[in-house]
Amino acid sequence: MKEIICILIFAFHLNVLGQDDVLVGKYEFTLGKEESHLIVYTLMLNHDGTFIFHSYNKINSGNQPAVKKYGKGNWTYEDKVVSFFTDKAKHFDEKYTLDFNDTKAGFVFKSPRDKTDRVIQTRLQFFASKMFWIESIEMFKM
Description:
The protein is of the alpha+beta class. It is built from 2 helices and 8 strands, in the order αβββββαβββ. The chain has a single domain, classed as Lipocalin (Beta Barrel). Strands 1-2-3-4-5-6-7-8 form an 8-stranded antiparallel beta barrel. The longest helix is centred in the N-terminal third of the chain and has 22 residues. The radius of gyration is 18 Å and the shape is globular.
């Protein structure tokens, strides 16, 4: 009986770790063109539950410099929802200023049980955040 319980627990942990592997990686959102107005958001989800976010905004009308913003913190995954957390004491400094607390994104991917040949690109769809500009953004896995 103990062996069966150990095997079930081991199988459960493999399943949980396998889902994180699908999540981990680089995500990107690009809007516009370099010649006029370019917005690029890059998000890196790491295996250790940390993330780094980079926002690049360049308007080519006038002599305005590109605006770069950064954020970092921790992320968790539960029920197809990725939740982001930022500890102000630990993750904030003069470079990392974006507050990701209360930010949530839905994780969209092709189920391993889906045997059709339809293509579903892995992505994060943000649906809640204190930062109004990130809500409804879809970031695709690179």
